[in-house]
Design a protein that fits this description.
globular, about 425 residues, about 40% helix
């Protein structure tokens, strides 16, 4: 008899991790399902594995409110191109985020918590051999799984932390809010059978907090078919073209270190492109250093488009995290998949990012201003890296799904 593996999660936030891990599980051994909020307005088909629904049945409910996205949608890029508007927006953003993070306990989606159990009751109340996997970000998914586990005690519950909860590096919570989250997390996770998370330092953190068996299942890259003439941007082949993909976190990454190290004299034959949501903080840095002709924000592209684009650039730019050794960003794995040399900027020497890059021997790790200046003036034009593509496959979702399979088989046996 096959085992039911049911992910209790919103694909809007747990993609690409959860759909890829389930997609690559053997359909001869598992019936695979996802229960969560409808994601039609948030993900495209390119964001998901090819023909996902032929492998995984997705059962959704409609979420009526999305407070944070509604507010962000009202702030257009055109309003932020004006410097005064941008400064006002940055101030209001900081105030709003502080209030937002401290008022919504544990998160903005808590009002949907019973929707997951209702769908589970409807479709799986009589099922045997069932494993549920709750996956954050947003702990509502773990609370929903806790309610299911409490009602159906014989099911196996794996709580998966792509992002941590009360130990989250990115949330500047008040002491009261942090205590509330820590208390709720301990109560909820006390019922889980296993914790999984994405980096070795986070495995140790979760073991200490919950005294539970915790396994490492990394994020990974999705294997896609590269197309000819796949670059959406016309690159100047006489220049060295560098690409940064995704969000920027000025409070947690060493972005300022790059801008305090460079000026126009570096950029005769160099151009840097940023793709992703428009960053008002980044635009401030670009304009302050008068680098508009050399460093450009190109806007948003789909996940597939950005993966395709990476293969056309000479280097990929990466900013490491300052305050948490265990952070491993999703785009980092896409960078690995591109098999291009990576410029990694960050003062923290012990991060998981740097451990992997050193193991793969395919990056330029710049840990201070002097190294940045020296590299951009003297080394960027002369270095070549030979990439071991076979070694890269260790970090694919296909490989990480095999690790999940071993975890599941240990429970089943």
């Amino acid at each position: 008899m096959k085992t039911n593996v049911i992910a209790i999660t919103d694909l809007e936030h747990s993609s690409p991790r959860i759909p890829n891990l389930l997609y690559h599980l053997d359909s001869k051994k598992y019936n695979k399902y996802i229960i969560g909020a409808n994601y039609d307005n948030f993900l495209s088909k390119d964001d998901l594995p090819n023909k996902l629904e032929s492998e995984v049945r997705i059962i959704t409910f409609k979420r009526n409110y999305n407070f944070f996205k509604s507010i962000k949608a009202k702030v257009s890029k055109t309003k932020l191109e004006n410097k005064q508007n941008r400064s006002t927006y940055l101030l209001l953003k900081k105030i709003f985020l502080k209030l937002f993070l401290n008022l919504f306990i544990p998160d903005q989606y808590f009002y949907t918590v019973f929707r997951y159990r209702k769908l589970f009751d409807k479709h799986f109340s009589n099922s045997s051999k069932t494993v549920i996997i709750s996956s954050s970000p947003y702990p509502t998914s773990h609370i929903a799984a806790y309610l299911i586990k409490r009602k159906y005690e014989k099911i196996i519950w794996i709580s998966d932390f792509r992002d941590l909860w009360s130990l989250n590096h990115a949330y500047n919570l008040s002491r009261f809010r942090l205590k509330m989250d820590r208390l709720i997390e301990k109560i909820i996770i006390s019922k889980t059978d296993l914790i999984t998370t994405v980096s070795a330092p986070w495995v140790e953190k979760m073991k200490i907090l919950h005294d539970k068996k915790t396994e490492l299942i990394r994020n990974g890259y999705s294997e896609v078919e590269f197309r000819e003439n796949n670059n959406a941007i016309n690159l100047d082949k006489n220049k060295i073209n560098i690409l940064y993909v995704g969000s920027l976190y000025f409070d947690f990454q060493d972005i300022d270190m790059l801008f305090s190290s460079i000026d126009n004299s570096f950029f005769d034959l160099i151009e840097i492109h940023f793709i992703g949501n428009f960053s008002s903080e980044l635009q401030e840095q670009i304009e302050t250093k008068n680098l508009q002709n050399h460093i450009k924000q190109l806007g948003r592209f789909s996940r597939l488009e950005s993966i395709q684009m990476q293969s056309n650039y000479d280097y990929l730019l990466f900013f490491d995290f300052k305050n948490d050794d265990g952070v491993l960003l999703l785009k980092f794995y896409e960078y690995l998949y591109s098999n291009k040399p990576i410029i990694c900027i960050g003062s923290n020497r012990l991060t998981e990012h740097k451990k992997i890059l050193r193991d793969l021997n395919r990056s330029f790790i710049l840990e201070n201003k002097n190294q940045i200046k020296h590299f951009f003036k003297n080394e960027i034009h002369s270095h070549e890296i030979v990439v071991d593509k076979n070694k890269t496959t260790e970090y694919s979702y296909r490989n990480q799904s095999q690790k999940l399979d071993k975890v599941l088989q240990n429970f089943i046996k």
